[in-house]
Amino acid sequence: MENFVDVNQVQLYASMISNVRIISTFSHSKVLICDNSKNPYKDELEWMKMTETEKPMKGNKWKQLVYNWLAEEGMFRKEVEDPKAAYHFRVNYPVGSPYHIEVVKPRDVKDGILVVSVLRIAPPHVTALAKLSDEDRKPLIHKLRFQLLQRRPGFSVKENEGVWEAVQFQARLFYDNLTKSALMAALDDVFRSILTVIWTFGHHFGIPSGQKQQPGFYT
């Protein structure tokens, strides 16, 4: 079956097929795709309808680019097997720290990537929060939530009867504005949100002896 696409797309598409020719109609020129067997995409029209920011993902160009940026800064740790993601990188940020931040391209997110980290609250701090009366705990949690709302990453809290046990932070980057600088800024924003929680509880309850705030893993 012959498929027609706009002639303006020829340069983008010609490198992917071996046999194209221009035909004319009364309204405007069209491209007739003659050789479907050598086209790496089964549905040409589907590919042509993709936005410019979606197209690079077909060849994993964004994956390679993001990996290169992370590797250049010495923060890439490993690629995580994740059936829900087109790619999933784990990084140490800051470099040399124990904190894990995930750079993820979920399969259901077509136009960008996520920078995500989960912070598990230190057990002594969870215990200390649980011992506070509602009158003392609620103002503390309210102030912390307000501080986090001032930061760029979104956040969600795992809690038990008002006692925080873990916090997930997430920043979204769209392909139309994805640069190395934007990625590094998102990593820094997520890390600063992590520090906001750690320092808030450390200020109120002290630093647990022999304990470190442990990062969790995005799932």
Overview of the molecule:
By secondary structure, the protein is of the alpha+beta class. It has two domains: 3-49, no CATH class; 59-216, Yope Regulator, Chain: A (2-Layer Sandwich). Helix content is 34%, strand content 29%. The protein has six helices and ten strands, in the order βαββααββββααββαβ. The chain has helices at 10-14, 44-49, 61-72, 123-131, 134-149, 180-205, and strands at 3-6, 20-24, 29-33, 76-79, 85-92, 100-106, 112-120, 154-160, 163-174, 214-216. The strands form two sheets. Strands 4, 5, 6, 7, 8, 9 and 10 form a seven-stranded antiparallel beta sheet that branches. A hairpin with a 2-residue loop joins strand 8 (154-160) and strand 9. It is elongated and about 55 Å long. The two termini are 43 Å apart.
Offer a concise description of the structure.
This protein has helices at 10-14, 44-49, 61-72, 123-131, 134-149, 180-205, and strands spanning 3-6, 20-24, 29-33, 76-79, 85-92, 100-106, 112-120, 154-160, 163-174, 214-216. The protein has 219 residues and is an alpha+beta fold.
